[in-house]
């Protein structure tokens, strides 16, 4: 039993160390778009054409153009080749366009397969039946050391040249004052509550973080233009946070057993990783990928990190307590 207890403590400490070393860039490779200091804006279609609208969505990750069944819009690729066509029959992509391959990636790939040839005759594949096309375009992103630069995406409207233009602007990150206050005050309150009334406090704190995970889900879904099913992967961290909170509530409400502390340790670490460390870049950037305001969003991240870390810390303390010590009364 003593060896098992030591192994559990070691496993918990290793998990905490691994969590603290989680890189936001790696985390957001599966959790969706990360925070940034860049804002992409658009001036729209130049010259303007009645019935055709353009906007930037997903915090600058995508451009969206809404056409008219009576017009044919051609979006040109990086070498001036036909990339996408929007007409009365829907949206079509040129399977031979290098842009079709490059725009599949958030970072432009260094090499393009030879099957994608800007000089080849277009091979069209329909990808939608409406007149709305949304795509990732590398021309709308920060590409150099300038704090702002203008971008252009060439198009044709019924064969007449036009362009979509806009700006990429650097927005200086501010100090996350609200999040820092939440962290300092929250750490003290969590510690005091868990010392005085461990089980009720653990359950109440977990319920609060579970609710905040649902708010985070709302912020992500409301901000993104992707469909519900396509966002399932990007919301995995919020779902993981909610699942950890639910597990903590269940453990806190059940009768104490030998598995209580290990379960709380695992759930607390999961909560801190999914809801805190995975979004730690929110605290150092001005633009967060959420419809929530910056102070509110970063405060939820800090609260989740503090609560998860504190619960895990108390679980480690219980696991390391001497085996011959009297059982701690957790019925309060």
Explain what the structure shows:
The protein has about 325 residues and is an alpha+beta fold. The protein has 2 domains: about 1-35 and about 175-320; about 40-170, no CATH class. It has 8 helices and 10 strands. It has helices at about 1-20, 25-30, 100, 175-195, 200-225, 235-255, 260-275, 295-320, and strands at about 40-45, 55, 60-65, 75, 80-85, 90-95, 125-130, 130-135, 150-155, 160-170. It has a 7-stranded antiparallel β-sheet with strand order 1-10-9-4-5-6-7. Helix 7 packs antiparallel against helix 8 (about 295-320). The protein is elongated. Mean pLDDT is about 85; it is low at about 15-30 and about 325-330.
What's a quick, concise take on this entry?
The protein has helices at 2-20, 24-31, 98-102, 177-196, 198-223, 236-253, 260-275, 294-320; strands at 38-46, 53-57, 62-66, 73-76, 82-87, 90-94, 124-128, 132-135, 148-157, 160-170. The chain has 332 residues and is an alpha+beta fold.
């Amino acid at each position: 039993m003593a060896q098992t207890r030591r192994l559990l403590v070691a496993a918990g400490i290793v998990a905490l160390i691994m969590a603290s070393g989680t890189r936001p860039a790696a985390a957001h490779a599966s959790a969706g778009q990360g925070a940034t200091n860049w804002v992409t804006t658009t001036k729209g279609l130049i010259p303007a054409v009645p019935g055709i609208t353009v906007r930037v969505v997903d915090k600058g990750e995508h451009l969206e153009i809404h056409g008219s069944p009576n017009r044919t819009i051609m979006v040109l690729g990086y070498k001036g080749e036909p990339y996408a066509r929007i007409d009365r029959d829907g949206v079509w992509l040129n399977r031979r366009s290098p842009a079709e391959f490059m725009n599949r990636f958030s970072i432009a790939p260094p090499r393009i397969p030879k099957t994608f040839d800007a000089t080849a005759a277009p091979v069209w594949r329909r990808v939608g039946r409406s007149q709305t096309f949304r795509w990732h375009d590398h021309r709308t992103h920060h590409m150099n050391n300038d704090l702002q630069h203008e971008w252009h995406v060439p198009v044709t409207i019924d064969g007449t040249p036009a362009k979509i233009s806009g700006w990429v602007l650097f927005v200086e990150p501010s100090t996350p004052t609200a999040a820092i206050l939440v962290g300092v005050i929250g750490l003290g309150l969590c510690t005091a509550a868990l010392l005085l009334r461990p089980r009720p406090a653990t359950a109440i704190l977990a319920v609060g973080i579970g609710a905040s995970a649902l708010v985070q889900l709302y912020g992500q879904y409301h901000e993104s233009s992707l469909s519900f099913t396509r966002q399932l992967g990007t919301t995995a961290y919020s779902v993981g946070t909610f699942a950890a909170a639910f597990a903590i509530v269940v453990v806190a409400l059940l009768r104490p057993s030998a598995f209580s502390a290990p379960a709380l340790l695992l759930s607390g670490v999961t909560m801190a990783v999914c809801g805190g460390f995975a979004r730690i870049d929110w605290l150092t950037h001005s633009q967060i990928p959420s419809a929530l305001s910056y102070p509110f969003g970063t405060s939820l991240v800090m609260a989740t990190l503090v609560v998860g870390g504190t619960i895990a810390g108390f679980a480690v303390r219980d696991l390391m307590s001497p085996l011959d010590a009297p059982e701690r009364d957790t019925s309060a």
